[in-house]
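Title: Prediction job returns without error message
Component: structure pipeline
Severity: low
Priority: P3
Assignee: unassigned

Description:
Job completed but the reporter wants confirmation the result is attached to the right record. Sequence as submitted:
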Amino acid sequence: MRGYFGIGVERISKPMNVGSVFRTANAFGASFVFTINAHYAVRQGNRSDTSHTSEALPFYEWDSVGDLVLPKGCRLVGVEFLDDAVELPRYRHPSAAAYLLGPERGSLSPEVLERCDEVIKIPTRFCINVALAGALVMYDRLLSSGRFGERPVVPATPAQLPRDEEWVAPTKKSHSG
């Protein structure tokens, strides 16, 4: 996939969660990270962000969604557990996106939801940790990029293998203790 993405959090209060989101963003190749109305101290966040993302990528801190400035053509994508949100496995990621996650024990603000171009959700039975949610969204973006092609089909039985290949049954490893 051509393009770029950034990821940010709104009104988050736990620096370790922000640090985890930012470290994962750095690992997945984000172009920038940001916060909106968050209580985030980089020094505390670096306890979980051992890659020191704020030194490696542009890091923006905005006081409100009204202050948020994104590059031209960059779509703001809210990640929120809403009934009418698009489920992540059905979502086509835009080439230029800024993903925005809400606070712990809360939701994206109505002002943010109003500003979002799209809202997506992870199809779970209930909300999950913000850092995990961010990782899943970035992983889905990577998978859907087509960069890796289709997954190979692993045969279940020898009969499903082409005749010129030999099938070896998996063996159980014994663990002696």
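Comment from assignee: result matches the submitted record. The mean pLDDT is 86.
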